[in-house]
Design brief:
The complex is a heterodimer. Chain A is mainly alpha-helical. Chain A has a domain of about 70 residues: 3 helical TM bundles of succinate and fumarate reductases, CATH 1.20.1300. Helices cover about 70% and strands about 0% of the residues of chain A. Chain A is built from five helices and no strands. Chain A is elongated and about 60 Å long. Chain B is mainly α. Chain B has a domain of about 100 residues: Fumarate reductase/succinate dehydrogenase, transmembrane subunit (3 helical TM bundles of succinate and fumarate reductases), CATH 1.20.1300.10. Chain B has eight helices and no strands. In chain B, helix 1 packs across helix 2 and helix 5 crosses helix 7. At the A-B interface, helix 1, helix 2, helix 3, helix 4 and helix 5 of A face helix 4, helix 5, helix 6 and helix 7 of B.
Chain lengths: ~170, ~190
Protein backbone atom coordinates (compact mmCIF):
# COMPACT_ATOMS: atom_id res chain seq x y z
CA UNK A 1 0.00 0.00 0.00
CA UNK A 2 2.72 2.37 0.99
CA UNK A 3 4.50 1.94 -2.30
CA UNK A 4 1.32 2.51 -4.30
CA UNK A 5 0.67 5.68 -2.35
CA UNK A 6 4.16 6.84 -3.09
CA UNK A 7 3.94 6.04 -6.77
CA UNK A 8 0.53 7.46 -7.47
CA UNK A 9 1.58 11.14 -7.65
CA UNK A 10 4.22 10.18 -10.15
CA UNK A 11 1.75 8.22 -12.22
CA UNK A 12 -0.82 10.98 -12.13
CA UNK A 13 1.75 13.50 -13.19
CA UNK A 14 2.90 11.39 -16.12
CA UNK A 15 -0.67 10.83 -17.28
CA UNK A 16 -1.47 14.51 -17.13
CA UNK A 17 1.64 15.44 -19.02
CA UNK A 18 0.82 12.81 -21.63
CA UNK A 19 -2.60 14.39 -22.17
CA UNK A 20 -1.35 17.95 -22.05
CA UNK A 21 1.76 17.45 -24.10
CA UNK A 22 0.21 17.77 -27.60
CA UNK A 23 -1.84 20.79 -26.55
CA UNK A 24 1.12 22.54 -24.99
CA UNK A 25 3.34 21.79 -27.96
CA UNK A 26 0.77 22.93 -30.43
CA UNK A 27 0.03 26.09 -28.50
CA UNK A 28 3.65 26.97 -28.03
CA UNK A 29 4.47 26.27 -31.67
CA UNK A 30 1.29 27.88 -33.00
CA UNK A 31 1.56 31.05 -30.99
CA UNK A 32 5.24 31.58 -31.54
CA UNK A 33 5.00 30.86 -35.27
CA UNK A 34 2.04 33.16 -35.67
CA UNK A 35 3.84 35.99 -33.93
CA UNK A 36 6.94 35.41 -36.03
CA UNK A 37 5.41 35.01 -39.47
CA UNK A 38 2.07 36.81 -39.50
CA UNK A 39 2.18 40.54 -39.77
CA UNK A 40 -1.59 40.94 -40.12
CA UNK A 41 -4.45 39.65 -38.01
CA UNK A 42 -5.57 36.07 -38.44
CA UNK A 43 -8.78 35.93 -40.46
CA UNK A 44 -10.75 32.79 -39.91
CA UNK A 45 -14.22 33.24 -41.35
CA UNK A 46 -15.45 29.77 -40.56
CA UNK A 47 -13.62 28.29 -37.58
CA UNK A 48 -13.93 24.52 -37.61
CA UNK A 49 -16.19 22.86 -35.09
CA UNK A 50 -14.60 20.42 -32.65
CA UNK A 51 -13.99 17.30 -34.68
CA UNK A 52 -15.68 14.10 -33.69
CA UNK A 53 -15.27 10.46 -34.61
CA UNK A 54 -18.32 8.34 -35.35
CA UNK A 55 -17.91 4.72 -34.40
CA UNK A 56 -14.30 3.75 -33.85
CA UNK A 57 -11.17 5.19 -35.38
CA UNK A 58 -10.61 2.21 -37.60
CA UNK A 59 -14.04 2.13 -39.21
CA UNK A 60 -13.85 2.51 -42.99
CA UNK A 61 -15.53 5.48 -44.65
CA UNK A 62 -19.15 4.59 -45.40
CA UNK A 63 -19.72 3.76 -49.05
CA UNK A 64 -22.89 5.44 -50.29
CA UNK A 65 -25.56 3.36 -51.94
CA UNK A 66 -24.62 3.12 -55.60
CA UNK A 67 -27.18 3.77 -58.27
CA UNK A 68 -26.73 4.79 -61.90
CA UNK A 69 -29.53 7.35 -61.52
CA UNK A 70 -27.39 9.22 -58.98
CA UNK A 71 -24.18 8.64 -60.89
CA UNK A 72 -23.75 8.43 -64.61
CA UNK A 73 -27.38 9.08 -65.67
CA UNK A 74 -27.54 12.12 -63.41
CA UNK A 75 -24.29 13.49 -64.84
CA UNK A 76 -25.39 12.87 -68.44
CA UNK A 77 -28.78 14.48 -67.75
CA UNK A 78 -27.07 17.61 -66.41
CA UNK A 79 -24.85 17.82 -69.51
CA UNK A 80 -27.85 17.30 -71.80
CA UNK A 81 -29.62 20.24 -70.13
CA UNK A 82 -26.47 22.38 -70.52
CA UNK A 83 -25.97 21.41 -74.16
CA UNK A 84 -29.65 22.11 -74.85
CA UNK A 85 -29.31 25.56 -73.30
CA UNK A 86 -26.51 26.58 -75.68
CA UNK A 87 -28.58 26.99 -78.90
CA UNK A 88 -31.59 28.29 -76.96
CA UNK A 89 -29.36 31.01 -75.48
CA UNK A 90 -27.78 32.00 -78.78
CA UNK A 91 -31.00 31.92 -80.87
CA UNK A 92 -32.66 35.07 -79.41
CA UNK A 93 -29.54 37.13 -80.22
CA UNK A 94 -29.55 35.82 -83.80
CA UNK A 95 -33.30 35.85 -84.50
CA UNK A 96 -34.90 38.25 -82.04
CA UNK A 97 -37.47 36.88 -79.62
CA UNK A 98 -38.33 33.20 -79.69
CA UNK A 99 -41.41 31.30 -80.73
CA UNK A 100 -43.56 30.49 -77.67
CA UNK A 101 -42.64 26.81 -77.90
CA UNK A 102 -38.89 27.41 -77.94
CA UNK A 103 -39.37 30.09 -75.29
CA UNK A 104 -41.14 27.52 -73.10
CA UNK A 105 -38.31 25.03 -73.75
CA UNK A 106 -35.78 27.67 -72.70
CA UNK A 107 -37.74 28.36 -69.49
CA UNK A 108 -38.01 24.66 -68.63
CA UNK A 109 -34.30 24.05 -69.16
CA UNK A 110 -33.44 27.17 -67.18
CA UNK A 111 -35.51 25.96 -64.23
CA UNK A 112 -33.93 22.48 -64.39
CA UNK A 113 -30.44 23.92 -64.72
CA UNK A 114 -31.00 26.35 -61.82
CA UNK A 115 -32.45 23.64 -59.61
CA UNK A 116 -29.46 21.35 -60.25
CA UNK A 117 -27.03 24.21 -59.64
CA UNK A 118 -28.65 25.29 -56.38
CA UNK A 119 -28.83 21.68 -55.24
CA UNK A 120 -25.09 21.25 -55.87
CA UNK A 121 -24.35 24.44 -53.94
CA UNK A 122 -26.50 23.34 -50.99
CA UNK A 123 -24.72 19.96 -50.92
CA UNK A 124 -21.34 21.72 -50.96
CA UNK A 125 -21.93 24.40 -48.36
CA UNK A 126 -24.35 22.74 -45.92
CA UNK A 127 -22.88 19.32 -45.11
CA UNK A 128 -25.45 16.89 -43.79
CA UNK A 129 -23.14 15.78 -41.00
CA UNK A 130 -22.54 19.29 -39.74
CA UNK A 131 -25.82 21.16 -40.25
CA UNK A 132 -28.52 18.52 -40.90
CA UNK A 133 -31.43 20.86 -40.11
CA UNK A 134 -30.17 23.76 -42.25
CA UNK A 135 -29.52 21.29 -45.05
CA UNK A 136 -33.07 19.96 -44.88
CA UNK A 137 -34.51 23.48 -44.65
CA UNK A 138 -32.51 24.63 -47.69
CA UNK A 139 -33.55 21.59 -49.69
CA UNK A 140 -37.24 22.17 -48.97
CA UNK A 141 -36.90 25.89 -49.62
CA UNK A 142 -35.29 25.06 -52.97
CA UNK A 143 -38.09 22.64 -53.91
CA UNK A 144 -40.71 25.22 -52.97
CA UNK A 145 -39.06 28.08 -54.88
CA UNK A 146 -38.39 25.88 -57.91
CA UNK A 147 -42.11 25.15 -57.97
CA UNK A 148 -43.11 28.81 -57.59
CA UNK A 149 -40.53 29.78 -60.25
CA UNK A 150 -41.89 27.23 -62.68
CA UNK A 151 -45.48 28.39 -62.13
CA UNK A 152 -44.40 32.04 -62.32
CA UNK A 153 -42.63 31.41 -65.62
CA UNK A 154 -45.73 29.61 -66.90
CA UNK A 155 -47.77 32.70 -66.03
CA UNK A 156 -45.19 34.90 -67.74
CA UNK A 157 -45.31 32.72 -70.85
CA UNK A 158 -49.10 32.40 -71.04
CA UNK A 159 -50.36 35.79 -69.78
CA UNK A 160 -47.45 37.97 -70.85
CA UNK A 161 -45.09 38.27 -73.81
CA UNK A 162 -42.62 35.59 -72.72
CA UNK A 163 -39.12 35.79 -71.31
CA UNK A 164 -37.09 36.57 -74.45
CA UNK A 165 -39.54 39.13 -75.85
CA UNK A 166 -39.96 40.63 -72.38
CA UNK A 167 -36.21 41.02 -71.89
CA UNK A 168 -35.90 42.51 -75.37
CA UNK A 169 -38.58 45.10 -74.61
CA UNK A 170 -37.01 46.03 -71.28
CA UNK A 171 -33.54 46.19 -72.88
CA UNK A 172 -34.77 48.47 -75.67
CA UNK A 173 -36.87 50.68 -73.38
CA UNK B 1 27.51 -0.82 -26.87
CA UNK B 2 29.97 1.82 -25.72
CA UNK B 3 27.39 3.45 -23.51
CA UNK B 4 26.54 0.11 -21.92
CA UNK B 5 30.19 -0.46 -21.11
CA UNK B 6 30.39 3.01 -19.69
CA UNK B 7 27.42 2.33 -17.43
CA UNK B 8 28.83 -0.98 -16.26
CA UNK B 9 32.24 0.46 -15.44
CA UNK B 10 31.47 1.90 -11.95
CA UNK B 11 29.70 -1.34 -11.04
CA UNK B 12 32.74 -3.43 -12.03
CA UNK B 13 35.04 -1.09 -10.14
CA UNK B 14 32.84 -1.41 -7.04
CA UNK B 15 32.85 -5.23 -7.34
CA UNK B 16 36.65 -5.33 -7.59
CA UNK B 17 37.50 -2.75 -4.98
CA UNK B 18 34.79 -3.32 -2.35
CA UNK B 19 33.21 -6.74 -2.77
CA UNK B 20 31.26 -6.55 0.52
CA UNK B 21 29.67 -3.27 -0.33
CA UNK B 22 28.83 -4.72 -3.73
CA UNK B 23 27.12 -7.73 -2.21
CA UNK B 24 25.19 -5.48 0.18
CA UNK B 25 24.02 -3.26 -2.60
CA UNK B 26 22.95 -6.26 -4.71
CA UNK B 27 20.83 -7.82 -1.97
CA UNK B 28 19.68 -4.35 -0.94
CA UNK B 29 19.75 -5.33 2.72
CA UNK B 30 16.87 -7.73 2.40
CA UNK B 31 17.18 -10.62 4.77
CA UNK B 32 15.24 -13.83 4.25
CA UNK B 33 13.54 -13.13 7.57
CA UNK B 34 12.18 -9.79 6.49
CA UNK B 35 10.88 -11.29 3.28
CA UNK B 36 9.19 -14.08 5.24
CA UNK B 37 7.61 -11.62 7.65
CA UNK B 38 6.35 -9.45 4.83
CA UNK B 39 8.35 -6.42 5.89
CA UNK B 40 10.08 -6.16 2.57
CA UNK B 41 8.10 -4.56 -0.19
CA UNK B 42 9.60 -4.52 -3.64
CA UNK B 43 9.76 -1.17 -5.30
CA UNK B 44 9.39 -0.53 -9.00
CA UNK B 45 10.27 2.92 -10.20
CA UNK B 46 8.69 2.51 -13.63
CA UNK B 47 5.02 1.68 -14.12
CA UNK B 48 4.63 -1.30 -16.41
CA UNK B 49 0.89 -1.02 -16.91
CA UNK B 50 -1.03 2.15 -17.82
CA UNK B 51 -4.48 1.28 -16.62
CA UNK B 52 -5.34 4.94 -16.06
CA UNK B 53 -5.59 5.94 -19.73
CA UNK B 54 -7.15 3.96 -22.55
CA UNK B 55 -4.46 3.36 -25.18
CA UNK B 56 -7.06 3.11 -27.92
CA UNK B 57 -7.88 6.78 -27.31
CA UNK B 58 -4.43 7.97 -28.39
CA UNK B 59 -5.29 7.54 -32.07
CA UNK B 60 -8.73 9.04 -31.52
CA UNK B 61 -7.17 12.15 -29.99
CA UNK B 62 -4.78 12.45 -32.90
CA UNK B 63 -7.63 12.10 -35.40
CA UNK B 64 -9.52 14.91 -33.68
CA UNK B 65 -6.58 17.25 -34.27
CA UNK B 66 -6.54 16.70 -38.01
CA UNK B 67 -5.73 19.82 -39.99
CA UNK B 68 -8.64 21.65 -41.57
CA UNK B 69 -8.60 23.26 -44.96
CA UNK B 70 -7.19 26.78 -44.75
CA UNK B 71 -9.07 29.92 -45.65
CA UNK B 72 -9.23 30.86 -49.34
CA UNK B 73 -7.25 34.06 -48.79
CA UNK B 74 -3.95 32.18 -48.37
CA UNK B 75 -3.99 30.95 -51.97
CA UNK B 76 -2.40 33.00 -54.70
CA UNK B 77 -5.12 34.45 -56.95
CA UNK B 78 -4.99 32.53 -60.22
CA UNK B 79 -7.34 32.53 -63.20
CA UNK B 80 -7.94 28.77 -62.74
CA UNK B 81 -9.67 28.90 -59.39
CA UNK B 82 -10.90 32.49 -59.50
CA UNK B 83 -12.63 31.76 -62.82
CA UNK B 84 -14.13 28.61 -61.40
CA UNK B 85 -15.60 30.35 -58.34
CA UNK B 86 -16.80 33.19 -60.56
CA UNK B 87 -18.72 30.60 -62.60
CA UNK B 88 -20.63 29.44 -59.54
CA UNK B 89 -21.13 32.96 -58.20
CA UNK B 90 -22.48 34.26 -61.53
CA UNK B 91 -24.69 31.19 -61.83
CA UNK B 92 -26.18 31.78 -58.39
CA UNK B 93 -26.72 35.47 -59.21
CA UNK B 94 -28.49 34.64 -62.49
CA UNK B 95 -30.61 31.79 -61.13
CA UNK B 96 -31.32 33.72 -57.94
CA UNK B 97 -32.55 36.63 -60.05
CA UNK B 98 -34.72 34.32 -62.15
CA UNK B 99 -36.16 32.64 -59.04
CA UNK B 100 -36.84 35.95 -57.27
CA UNK B 101 -38.40 37.59 -60.32
CA UNK B 102 -40.67 34.69 -61.30
CA UNK B 103 -41.77 34.06 -57.72
CA UNK B 104 -42.47 37.77 -57.32
CA UNK B 105 -44.30 37.72 -60.68
CA UNK B 106 -46.46 34.87 -59.39
CA UNK B 107 -47.19 36.68 -56.12
CA UNK B 108 -47.64 40.10 -57.76
CA UNK B 109 -51.45 39.98 -58.19
CA UNK B 110 -51.88 39.08 -54.51
CA UNK B 111 -49.44 41.72 -53.29
CA UNK B 112 -50.60 44.40 -55.72
CA UNK B 113 -47.22 44.75 -57.44
CA UNK B 114 -46.89 45.56 -61.11
CA UNK B 115 -44.28 43.29 -62.61
CA UNK B 116 -45.84 42.83 -66.06
CA UNK B 117 -43.39 43.36 -68.89
CA UNK B 118 -45.10 46.58 -69.99
CA UNK B 119 -44.84 48.18 -66.52
CA UNK B 120 -41.25 47.08 -65.96
CA UNK B 121 -40.23 48.26 -69.43
CA UNK B 122 -41.88 51.63 -68.81
CA UNK B 123 -40.16 51.96 -65.42
CA UNK B 124 -36.80 51.01 -66.93
CA UNK B 125 -37.26 53.42 -69.82
CA UNK B 126 -37.84 56.28 -67.38
CA UNK B 127 -34.37 55.82 -65.82
CA UNK B 128 -31.46 58.13 -66.72
CA UNK B 129 -29.04 56.76 -69.32
CA UNK B 130 -26.24 56.17 -66.77
CA UNK B 131 -28.50 54.00 -64.62
CA UNK B 132 -29.67 52.12 -67.71
CA UNK B 133 -26.12 51.33 -68.83
CA UNK B 134 -25.11 50.45 -65.28
CA UNK B 135 -28.05 48.09 -64.71
CA UNK B 136 -27.61 46.50 -68.12
CA UNK B 137 -23.92 45.87 -67.41
CA UNK B 138 -24.76 44.39 -64.01
CA UNK B 139 -27.20 42.00 -65.68
CA UNK B 140 -25.16 41.30 -68.81
CA UNK B 141 -21.78 40.48 -67.27
CA UNK B 142 -22.89 37.48 -65.14
CA UNK B 143 -24.95 36.24 -68.09
CA UNK B 144 -22.23 36.34 -70.75
CA UNK B 145 -19.54 35.13 -68.37
CA UNK B 146 -21.61 32.16 -67.20
CA UNK B 147 -22.63 31.25 -70.77
CA UNK B 148 -19.10 31.37 -72.17
CA UNK B 149 -17.55 29.64 -69.18
CA UNK B 150 -20.31 27.04 -69.42
CA UNK B 151 -19.19 26.23 -72.96
CA UNK B 152 -15.65 25.92 -71.58
CA UNK B 153 -16.94 23.42 -69.02
CA UNK B 154 -18.67 21.41 -71.76
CA UNK B 155 -15.39 21.30 -73.71
CA UNK B 156 -13.62 20.03 -70.58
CA UNK B 157 -16.30 17.36 -70.19
CA UNK B 158 -15.24 16.06 -73.61
CA UNK B 159 -11.74 15.69 -72.16
CA UNK B 160 -10.22 18.53 -74.17
CA UNK B 161 -8.29 21.61 -73.16
CA UNK B 162 -7.51 20.48 -69.64
CA UNK B 163 -3.79 21.16 -69.48
CA UNK B 164 -2.80 23.99 -67.18
CA UNK B 165 -1.64 26.25 -70.01
CA UNK B 166 -4.84 25.67 -72.02
CA UNK B 167 -7.02 26.36 -68.99
CA UNK B 168 -5.17 29.61 -68.26
CA UNK B 169 -5.45 30.70 -71.90
CA UNK B 170 -9.14 29.84 -72.26
CA UNK B 171 -9.86 31.43 -68.87
CA UNK B 172 -8.44 34.78 -69.91
CA UNK B 173 -10.13 34.47 -73.31
CA UNK B 174 -13.50 34.07 -71.58
CA UNK B 175 -12.79 37.05 -69.30
CA UNK B 176 -11.86 39.22 -72.29
CA UNK B 177 -14.80 38.13 -74.42
CA UNK B 178 -17.24 38.65 -71.52
CA UNK B 179 -15.93 42.15 -70.86
CA UNK B 180 -16.29 42.99 -74.55
CA UNK B 181 -19.80 41.54 -74.91
CA UNK B 182 -20.89 43.21 -71.67
CA UNK B 183 -19.91 46.57 -73.16
CA UNK B 184 -21.72 45.78 -76.43
CA UNK B 185 -24.87 44.64 -74.61
CA UNK B 186 -24.82 47.57 -72.19
CA UNK B 187 -24.85 50.12 -75.01
CA UNK B 188 -27.28 48.13 -77.19
Amino acid sequence: MASIARQSPLLRQSCLSAIRAPLVNRNAAGVSQMVAFHASAKKQILPPLPQSIQGTVNDPAPVPHTSPSHGSYHWSFERLVCVGLVPLTIAPFAAGSLHPVTDAALCSLLVLHSHIGFEASIIDYFPKQRVPKTRALCNWLLRLTTFTTAVGLYELETNDVGITEGLRRIWKA
Amino acid sequence: MFSQKLAQQPLRRLAVQQPYAMRWSMTNGVSPASVALGNNVQKRQAATSSNTSDPTQILARQRKNRPVSPHLSIYRPQITWIGSSAHRVTGIILSGGLYLYSTAYLAAPVLGWHLETASVAAAFGALPIVAKVGLKSLMAFPFVYHCMNGVRHLVWDLGRGITNQQVIKSGWTVVGLSALSTLVLAFL
